[in-house]
Amino acid sequence: xxxxxxxxxxxxxxxxxxxxxxxxxxxxxxxxxxxxxxxxxxxxxxxxxxxxxxxxxxxxxxxxxxxxxxxxxxxxxxxxxxxxxxxxxxxxxxxxxxxxxxxxxxxxxxxxxxxxxxxxxxxxxxxxxxxxxxxxxxxxxxxxxxxxxxxxxxxxxxxxxxxxxxxxxxxxxxxxxxxxxxxxxxxxxxxxxxxxxxxxxxxxxxxxxxxx
Length: 212
Prior knowledge:
Arc Repressor Mutant, subunit A, Muramoyl-pentapeptide Carboxypeptidase, domain 2, 2 domains, two-stranded antiparallel ribbon, 9 helices, 6 strands, 53% helix, 19% strand
């Protein structure tokens, strides 16, 4: 199966789980009209990406049954009008506790996000880490692409054609600074530079990652 078909099948599985809440691999295979074997491969990939989770149901006879459902991260893939609420909340927070405290809150948020990324990057080579980061950013709606600029020494360029938090970034551009700090913390052996910035009117955000 080619990559585009695999992606569409995985997206269809996520949409099915959103509607059904929980389902077995067999139920999903029947609904998607694909083989159970192919379904299990897709489910394995979605589990590794943190988009789904499962409950193990033990029965009196036969094998235990796995029931799959969307994880919180999986549900966050689907459109939610959080931007306006987030900006309004930050405005209220700024009025209540001041800009310095809000900046500390945003910093803490990016530190938590970096910790979540690290869970899926630990133990991998630099190129594998960058590739996994781009995959996760794609899942979050950033339309990320990876370009290998140099192989020895390694040098990578990440291009993001969409800002998934554009509403917040427009009102609170400091979140972009925290984002750059987050990327730097994920690759301590590298220099991470922002080369392009949507907030400054460019058509993408760009990050250059190279060995120090």
